[in-house]
Amino acid sequence: MNRFRISGSSKELFGPDAGWEDDTTISICGNRLCKVKFSFLVTKHHCRWCGRIFCGTCAPRNVQVDGKWYRRCNGCRLPIIFRSVVNPFTAKREATVLHTILDFLTPKSITALLQSCHTMLAGFFLRDYPFYNTIQERFPSYYEGAQIGKGGFGIVYNCEDRFNPARGHVVIKRLVKEKALTYSMWERFFNELKVHKAANHPNIARQLEVFQTPEDLVVVVEAGEGGTARQACEYVRTHRLPLEPFVASLVRQVAAGLDYLYRSLRVVHRDIKFDNIVFTRDFGRAMIIDFGLSEQLTIGEDQGGTATYVFMAAGTPGYASPENLAAVVSGQASFLATAATMHKGDLFSLGVMAHMMLTLHRPLRARRFSKQYLEIQQGIRCYGPWWDGISLDAADLVSQLLQQNPSSRPDYAAICAHPFIRRQAAKMVDIVRHRQESGRRDDAEEREHWVRMEPTPEDTEAPEQFPYSKYSIRGFFSLWESSRILLGRMNNWGGTLIF
Length: 499
Known about the structure:
Layout: E1 4-5, E2 12-13, E3 45-46, E4 53-54, E5 61-65, E6 68-71, E7 85-86, E8 93-94, H1 96-103, H2 107-116, H3 135-138, E9 147-150, E10 154-160, E11 169-176, H4 183-198, E12 207-212, E13 216-222, E14 227-228, H5 229-238, H6 243-264, E15 267-268, E16 277-279, E17 286-288, E18 295-296, E19 308-312, H7 322-329, E20 334-338, H8 339-359, H9 369-378, H10 392-401, H11 412-417, H12 419-424, H13 428-450, H14 457-460, H15 473-493
Antiparallel strand pairs: 1-2, 3-4, 5-6, 7-8, 9-10, 10-11, 11-13, 12-13, 14-16, 15-18, 16-17, 19-20
Helix pairs in contact: 5-6, 6-8, 7-9, 8-10
């Protein structure tokens, strides 16, 4: 085995491109899944193949060379075929051998490979996606302090696309490669990207681009500068704007996006909630985001729409449809349902949002799934003290959306024809006009804040001093006289000073 000696040192490395990392600047383990802090008990160790610093667990002494044992980190233990390299002819990063092997493996074999090689998943090269060394290389304005959300598989940040000014602000979602340790998670990553890319509707946030770094798969999505549905509702209530037109507009637009997904793409979203609905800056357009739990039906419904599919019980607690709750209560991880039933499940979640926006109360008040399902069976009441001051049309539409039987819930056409939508949705123009005017005022204030004012003659003059400023000689003697009088009085009182 070839050895490479570090200049001016007796240390030897076995990697030709390795560099000895300075241990004085490292305080945590180099393994991204470990990141343990070094201390008196947790010592630092160099990997003899890459030169980086790890803890003893992540870089065990497991390789014997010429009768001597050396430390090698888990990433360097993997064969070279699993690593991506730069093709000298195309100047692009490739991993042809790895992907050729993956094409011939079964899902269980891929899961076993991912779980055994999870420490190297940061180096996986995904086909068809551009490669950057860091996110800042593509988005210089990116920084971790701009985080606006966090999910089970990724973190969402607000960012500005300086290389494409026409886009302005965008939202980037980091999908960590190391978390895809099973074939189902791996497929969920690509399913979300495929569904989102195929969607082309005004009420669905556009997927602008996808690229990768050594650690993450980054998805760039159209930004909702108006914030999430929760933030928009708080703005409407805080500024005492009409609430029912806002709710009617949101219900109509989200229902339009869900209807497009179901009828055009055969997709059910399965995770409709406040954080997955965003608005444009003037609240004129609502957009659906986050297709992490969405499922695309590859086989079209036949026999009059009676074909059933196997769905995993999933969703957000408090928003999940009765079909998902019934499976969880009965102890089943999956259940059979038609595509139309699951589409109506998304409309049930939309009804939960409308109920909370109008009344500021959850329709399902219980914490346990069994009690939530019992509340749905008993019927969710849309009357009482919570509904004081809310129109009967709004209560009627919410009551229909929260029905236990999926066939009793209205579809998109019935929602648009409902009196609440027909009467209130058109009044949304007043809220949009208010947002546009306030946006112009905010822009003017921001420009005025950053404009550098020219100095006036008054600014160039020396500032006037107070008569007894502590920085003047007269002020100094005044303070000294006050201190002397105070000390004399304390001596007369018999007090003592402790310094």
